[in-house]
From TrEMBL:
Subcellular localization(s) per the UniProt record: Cell projection, Cilium; Vacuole membrane
Secretion signal span: none
Annotated InterPro entries: TM_138 (IPR024133)
PANTHER family the UniProt entry points to: TRANSMEMBRANE PROTEIN 138
GO cellular component terms attached to this protein's record: cilium; vacuolar membrane
Example of a GO biological process term: cell projection organization
Protein's recorded name: Transmembrane protein 138
TM spans (from-to): 6-24, 36-61, 81-99
Chief site of localization: other
Swiss-Prot/TrEMBL keywords: Cell projection, Cilium, Cilium biogenesis/degradation, Glycoprotein, Membrane, Transmembrane, Transmembrane helix, Vacuole
Similarity comment: Belongs to the TMEM138 family.
Taxonomic lineage from the root: Eukaryota, Metazoa, Chordata, Craniata, Vertebrata
Length: 174
């Protein structure tokens, strides 16, 4: 089960992976002269996106909704996050393959085709719309403390047998 200290660690790791993703998206064009370094950065970025998706699913598995067997409810509620995260991963991989194919042989020339620009826009839109959600209800709620309200009087519909079980045959419980 995920504890509060572990939850902050997982959230920090997920945040660092997203910051790396943002960094590579922002500055990968500056490394177009070194295609090998750009390729390594793209591979690490795709692995980081995959790790973020894995973290999202691991957080799903730690919820009580999932453990109670209501998987369909959980996935129905967060299908937008799951679909957009998967679409962003696919679009990122497609974009990276296309960019590296165009620029590998001639890295000094700036190549930007219409199809690459359309894929670039869809890939960036997919990232902007996909929230990085993690379930927050991973801990059991603490039981509420009850105050003593005194004896409870319940109506008794049973005939009084006079057995003296409660002393005087009343239906008042302490």
């Amino acid at each position: 089960m995920l504890r509060t200290s572990n939850y902050s660690l997982v959230l920090s790791v997920q945040f660092l992976l997203l910051v790396y993703d943002l960094f590579v998206n922002s500055f990968s064009e500056l490394l177009r002269m070194a295609p090998v370094i750009q390729l390594v950065l793209f591979i690490i970025q795709d692995i980081a996106i995959l790790f973020n998706i894995i973290i999202i699913f691991l957080m799903f598995f730690n919820t009580f909704v999932f453990q109670a067997g209501l998987v369909n409810l959980l996935f129905h509620k967060f299908k937008g996050t799951i679909v957009l995260s998967a679409a962003y991963l696919v679009l990122s991989i497609a974009f990276h393959i296309w960019v590296m194919n165009l620029r590998w042989k001639n890295s000094t020339r700036f190549v930007w085709t219409d199809g690459l620009q359309a894929l670039f826009v869809f890939q960036r839109l997919g990232k902007g719309q996909a929230p990085s959600w993690t379930p927050t209800h991973t801990h059991r709620p603490q039981p509420q403390s009850r105050q003593w309200a005194g004896p409870i009087s319940l109506p008794c519909n049973f005939p009084r047998l006079g057995l003296g079980l409660l002393g005087n045959g009343s239906s008042t419980f302490p």
